[in-house]
Amino acid sequence: MNLTLKIWRQKGSNDKGQMVEYNVTDISEHMSFLEMMDVLNEQLVAKDEEPVAFDHDCREGICGMCSMYINGEAHGPDRGITTCQLHMRTFNDGDTITIEPFRANSFPVIKDLVVDRMAFERIQQAGGFISVNTSGNTQDANAIPISKHAADEAMDAATCIGCGACVASCKNSSAMLFVSAKVSQYALLPQGQVEATDRVLNMVKQMDEEGFGNCTNTGACEVECPKGISLENIARMNREYLAASLKG
Ligand code: SF4
Ligand code: FES
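A: This is the predicted complex of the input protein with FE2/S2 (inorganic) cluster.
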C-alpha cells in the first residue's frame, strides 16, 4: 500500500506545532500501525530528517502508552483495541491518514505525538492502592469470600490500562472513566473498604486539581476505550463519592 500521512509535528512543549505531510510506500497490510510508523521513521532517518516521536512500550495492548489520535479517533477506527493492535489492513491503498497526539490541557504535548500523562499517575498516587501488611502474616486471599459477580466486575474495572483515550475523546477532557475504573476495582472488593472513604475523596480532588473537565454523560469515552470500561463505573464512583462526602 502507498499512503499519505498527515502528522502533527511539534519540537517541544513551547513550540506551536503544525501538520506535516509524508508519503510512505510499500506498506504491507499485515503490518501493525506502529510498524508502519517505524517504516516512516526509517525513511526519515535515511533522509537525515528528524523521526516522528511517539510513545510505545509493550506493543500488545497492555501498557497504554501508544496514545495516537488517528483520523479523528483515539486509537484509530477499530473498536476495543489500542493503536499498537491496529493493523494496516484496516486502511486502503491510497488513503490519507491523519495522526495527532491525544489532546487535552491536562496532557501537554512533550514532542510530536508524545504527551505527558503524569496527571494520571498523580491521581493514582492520591488513592489508587490498598495498604496491605506484607510482613509475612498476610491473610490468604482465598480466606476472604467474594461473590463471583463482584469479582467479575472488579476484574473488568481493573483492565483499565491508563491510556487516556477516554480523556482524548471527551469534549470536556474528562477523566471520569479512568478514575471511576480505578475507584471501582477497589470499591467492589472487601480489601478496598478500609481506605474507601479517603480514596474516592482524594482521587476526585486530585482529578479536579489536574484540570480535567466534568462528565456530561455523552459516552464517547466508553465507545473509544480499548478495554470496554463501562459507564456504570462512573455511576458507582458518584455513589461512592456521595456516601464518602456525607461521612466526612
Ligand atoms: S478507562 Fe479506558 S480509555 Fe480510559 S484510561 Fe482506562 S483503558 Fe484507557
Ligand atoms: S504499546 Fe502498550 S498498549 Fe500500545
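The longest helix spans residues 232-247. Residues 56-59, 61-66, 82-84 surround FE2/S2 (inorganic) cluster (ligand 2) (CB under 6 Å).
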